[in-house]
Design brief:
Layout (H helix, E strand, L loop, with lengths): L8 E4 L3 H13 L3 E4 L3 E5 L5 H6 L6 E4 L2 H13 L9 E4 L2 H8 L14 H8 L9 E6 L5 H8 L5 E10 L4 H10 L4 E4 L2 H11 L7 E3 L2 H10 L4 E3 L5 H10 L1
Parallel strand pairs: 1-2, 1-8, 4-5, 4-6, 6-7, 8-9, 9-10
Antiparallel strand pairs: 3-7
């Protein structure tokens, strides 16, 4: 696929720490990444952190919905001297979340073929055994898809917020400059939070091709008023690149 995005100028809105790998892949394909990180990710200490880690060995399932959640959870894990029980199984919402787990020496036991919370719920609920203890690892802006699914089924679970997603107000001037010059070919969104941050910082949607990592992000972009939407078939950065190549 080398050169398939030759000369294409692509706005990367991911948090700065995650933008690098996306930008590198764009360059490998001949494209020109324009990094405008709309979000900042900060680790936080949850009010129930001590309680969760005191009973960490009792959980049968630990569910991670993002790589950020993995990274921030294991920072707290080390701080609290955490230990999983021998019975523990791990679920991850997608391949990149599983890769983050592997960097800490763990591999997910359950990963859906389609990388979103709806798909994870679809394969998790049929195998869940009554009375299994669940810990859901989340961020401050995580969607409520899994909590709602569990509540509807009467499944008890614990939840811990290990990071907060903040709008990067310092990038506002740069965003306005790039958008108003119209010097780009694609705008990329990797989560509903990036969509919401764009609207917060710019004030309105723009009539340009927007590439969304998946259907949940596409729904958020559509609801925000974006109307030139392209969705990756595989809900990954690689899927987004392929969608731009095929466009």
């Amino acid at each position: 696929m080398s050169g398939d995005l030759k000369g294409k100028r692509i706005i990367v809105t991911r948090e700065a720490g995650q933008a690098k790998s996306f930008s590198e892949k764009i360059r490998e394909l001949g494209g020109i990444p324009i990094e405008i990180p709309l979000l900042r990710i900060n680790s936080i200490t949850a009010s129930n952190e001590q309680d969760v880690f005191n009973r960490l060995k009792s959980y049968d399932w630990i569910i991670f919905t993002s790589a950020n959640g993995v990274n921030c959870f294991f920072a707290a894990y080390d701080k609290n001297g955490g230990h999983f029980g021998e019975q523990v199984k791990i679920a991850a919402v997608g391949h990149k979340t599983d890769l983050a787990l592997q960097r800490f020496g763990y591999t997910a036991d359950l990963v859906p073929d389609t990388y979103d919370a709806e798909s994870l719920a679809a394969i998790f609920l049929p195998i869940y055994q009554n009375r299994e203890q669940i810990l859901l690892v989340r961020g401050s802006r995580s969607l409520d898809i899994l909590p709602k699914k569990f509540t509807e089924r009467g499944i008890a679970f614990d939840s811990i917020e290990v990071y907060e997603t903040m709008i990067n107000g310092g990038i506002k001037e740069r965003l306005h400059e790039v958008i108003q010059k119209n010097a780009f070919d694609y705008l990329t969104f990797t989560s509903p939070s990036t969509v919401n941050a764009f609207i917060d910082l710019y004030g309105e949607p723009v009539p340009v091709p927007c590439v969304c990592i998946g259907t949940t992000t596409k729904k958020a972009a559509s609801a925000a008023g974006f109307n030139q939407l392209i969705t990756a078939k595989t809900f990954t950065i690689e899927g987004m690149l392929e969608a731009m190549i095929q466009d």
